[in-house]
Amino acid sequence: MKNYRANATSEMTQLERENGQIVRELAGECMVILENDGILPLKGTCRVALYGNGARHTIKGGTGSGDVNARKVVCIEEGLESTGFTVVTENWLNAYDAEIAEEKERHQKKIKKLAEELHKPEINVAFDYPYEDPDAPEITEKEDAELAIYVLSRNSGEGKDRYCRKGDYLLTDREEANIRFLTEQYEKSIVLLNTGGIIDTTFLRSLKGLNALLIVGQTGSEGGHVVADVLTGRTIPSGRLTDTWAKDYQDYPSSADYSHNNGNVNDEYYSEDIFVGYRYFDTFEVEPAYCFGYGKSYTEFTIQTDHVEIEKSDVMFWVDVRNVGDEFAGKEVIQVYVSAPGKDMEKPYQELVAFRKTSLLPPKAGECVLVRFPLAALASYSSKDAAWELEEGDYLIRVGNSSRNTQPVAVLRMKQSKKTSQLKNLFDEDDTLTKLAETETGKNALAKRNDRVKKETEAALANVPVLTVDMSKIRCEEPGYSVGARIEMKDHFPERTLTMDEVKRGDVTLEDLVAQLTVEELANLCVGTERLEDDANAVGCASDSVIGAAGETWSALEETRKIPALILADGPAGLRLQPHFKTTSEGEKISGGEVFGMAFRPFPENLPADTRDYYQYCTAIPIASTLAQSWDMDLVKRMGEIAGAEMKQFGVHLWLAPGMNIHRNPLCGRNFEYYSEDPYLTGRCAAADTLGVQSFDGQGTTIKHFAANNQEDNRNYTNAHISERALREIYLRGFEIAVKEAHPYSIMTSYNLINGIHSANRYDLLQTAARDEWGFDGFVMTDWYATQDTSVMGQAPDKYTWASAKQAIHAGNDMLMPGCALNVTDLIQGAKEETEMTLADLQHCVRNILSIGLRTMR
Ligand code: BGC
């Protein structure tokens, strides 16, 4: 008889209640005030004319595997009403509801029909043809209300990139007309952006009568309450942008060629190179609508840097932050940017190297914040020398509260160049890649940039301290690289059957145990349990032990060898499990129920009376892009603890989160699952999330998707052409920080290829970079179906094919998920015939997996 940790009643548990409360308390701090003429916080509740597609259908988070099956979502209408506002636009909202219901039905029929025609599972068709809200009804009459609020929502999800078109990145004509009507007819009007990413704000910024513009983001189940709290000042929003919001989509350097924009989804050339986000806008002097790090407060602050010093190899300074307003409390985000000399290497105008958020400062209160960062953080990767290097020259340090509002605080003088780590180039740069910096435009912009930085540094020298760095104190690290083929583990205890219990007690080693396993057992341990026999199309719900969890590992050796199975469930906006499932009285799962929002299959009718019902409602926390806007690592950690507590309750070992790909382009369909355009901020957030989850013994995170998973169209088969330097500085940097700072249990490789080789098959990425250079000591898994033919799911390969199972094992991609029978046979054959992989490779992978299994054992 199977045992489930799920609840036997649908009643709200104490944990669910408490977690909801924490989200309500904290999520408002992630919201970013873009504009506010003083209307916010509102002076009290009032009659409000509420409109927009997010008023009633507030989006809690995006779609796909990143969706969380929460019990309910408090919409903005409900949040406002429960706070004391009177919403007077019920008729308009009802009329829109009817249109939405009709559109949803039409969409579902379309998906069904297409699935039949194309012989694809519905879920995959739904990825390709996401539901879009119908345009809102025209607003023609002014209601009797003191305030008008328009909630503009946008949704996106995996498998599909967004479009720079009306209704998505751009506003529809109707949305513009409606919002204009509100600003003209009402004395007070506010627009709330319930989006997971960037949209075009040209129209909104041009509107005369708009009193406030607020990014409320997508904050999970409590969304409506959080918004009401923020509007009324019960919670003080203190978010800052983690991306550059451009004036025009075309201003993003990757916009012309990104994903479907140029009609080529097979090859993606990262020609902007390291100039991603503000690194581009600042260097190429493109004025954004809202710059990286920007956000207003309900109050004003002064920031005064008091003292800067170098202690050993760290730069430290004390910043006095003061709330100089009279009325409201607030939190300020201290951001530190550095402009490096740029003599031999091209450098961005500036880069974020440190940040700190203050506590909640009441009016007139101040706080002295210590900010520190290692000198090595100022280094750039030189592919010429295969090393991180600090160039000789003056480094200008600026401190402020956004990337474009800073003051110089010190100049660090380095009298000679110095390597901070000597590595190896790993990623076979593709010579068809033309880098922006090498073009005429690039060369001119960089020459201007160097000039500008030089002048600014010279000007600063008169006012700020110059600290000469003792370069002899900076160590050059040299990782120990694995050399030669892996060595086969030999059985030293042929007379007995070793178990994991003995390994746990320290009587024998993991290697001793692994050496005793047969090739068949080893292969099975490296492949998830789905095996494509049943439910092959139900993406991401392959676990039999925790229903709705994305996958689990082979449990056949649980009895004899005490090898535990690991249960893996999605995130990152909470835990994605099936909220309600049924079993027979014997505990056998009955098919049916909700897997994620768009995949619901009814339970069979006339089930016997002894059918059992189980419930696993999880808390939807803010999506990653909203969470990161808090710039508050304690807050992010706290959200990780929420996921961790629910993993513990339901018996999940590995959270398939956080997602930490870089926001290279605003149209990436999964940007909402990732934190930022900046790798440093990304790495810090992923580390904080991980520390939260891993504060529970035996539970870990899976940082994903490693690496360069920046496009969703043709995501399984797209080849990212990227330079070694851009990989090191932008696309791998966050992963490196998270690994070093928080030691996540696992890493999930991405679907895409990097310079012609699938990341799942890259030894240089998994063994050389992650393990040898950064010290990663967990196990690596593939993304779902990465080593199998996905044509059956309607994702047919075009120019490139799927990743090789055998090469994955050789590369140190230890686990193939969710698992298929063919992968097992392949690995057995590979190990026996030593083709593309060896038996030693397979043993090595099992050892890595079991090292995490060991941590989950009590
Ligand atoms: C996604 C992963 C997810 C997995 C399991 C894949 O489609 O890319 O992020 O963890 O499914 O659901």
UniProtKB/TrEMBL annotation:
The keyword Hydrolase applies. This is Glycoside hydrolase family 3 C-terminal domain-containing protein. The keyword Hydrolase applies. Residues 332-403 form the Fibronectin type III-like domain. InterPro entries: Cellulose_deg_GH3, Fn3-like, GH, Glyco_hydro_3_C, Glyco_hydro_3_C_sf, Glyco_hydro_3_N, Glyco_hydro_3_N_sf, Ig-like_fold. Transmembrane segments: none annotated. The lineage of its organism: Bacteria, Bacillati, Bacillota, Clostridia, Lachnospirales. Belongs to the glycosyl hydrolase 3 family. Keywords: Hydrolase. One of its GO terms (molecular function) is hydrolase activity. It comes from the Bacteria.
